Amino acid sequence: MYIFVELWNVKQAWLDMSQEDRGAYVNGVGGAMEELAKAGVECLCWTHVDNKDYLSGHDYIAVWKMPDEATVELFEKTVEGAGWYNYFEQVNARGVMDTPQDVLGHLVGL
After folding, report:
1. Which of 83, 81, 76 is nearest to 22 (CA)?
2. Domains of the chain, first to last
3. pLDDT tens string for the chain (110 positions)?
4. What is the strand order of the sheet 2-10 is part of?
5. How far does the chain reach from its first CA to its final CA, in angstroms?
6. Residues 106, 87: Cα–Cα separation, whole Å
7. What three-state secondary structure class fits 54?
8. d(Cα 2, Cα 72) in Å, to the nearest integer?
9. What are the CA-CA distances from residue 105 to residues 3, 95, 110 (Å)?
10. What are phi and psi of 75, to 5 degrees?
């Protein structure tokens, strides 16, 4: 199982769009999300960040769970193909789901 985390802020291109155009774009994203769900992509949550100390400075987060790397790659291609990065400045993180003990052990072994 993979975990995929998106952190983003809006770009000026998004703010320059009319609310009607934003709504149309969001409706298209909803359809793409339904197709991804059929491929095994599970949305764990989306949130508007309450920025406090030690945070990244991003305003939005989405967390996803996916069954395998092939699905992760499908997800990445779908997001890019939807033009998401035209409207949002984003960073991503992904990896195989693991336990705290395994990750801490990896850190110790560095």
Report:
1. 83
2. 2-108 (3.30.70.1030)
3. 999 999 999 999 999 999 999 999 999 888 888 889 999 999 999 999 987 777 788 999 999 999 999 999 999 999 999 999 999 999 999 999 999 999 999 999 99
4. 42-48, 60-66, 2-10, 88-96
5. 24
6. 36
7. coil
8. 8
9. 19, 16, 9
10. -60, -50
Q: What is the 3-state secondary structure (H, E, C) of 89-102?
A: EEEEEEEECCCHHH
Question: Between the CA of residue 41 and those of 10, 14, 30, 33, 80, what are the distances in Å?
Answer: 24, 26, 13, 8, 16
Residue with tokens 């969001």: 26
């291609």: which residue's tokens? 77
Which among 20, 13, 19, 36 has a CA at the least distance from the CA of 90? 13
pTM comes to: 0.88
Give 13's contacts (C-beta < 8 A, 6+ positions apart). Answer: 86, 87
Distance CA 68, CA 81 (A): 20
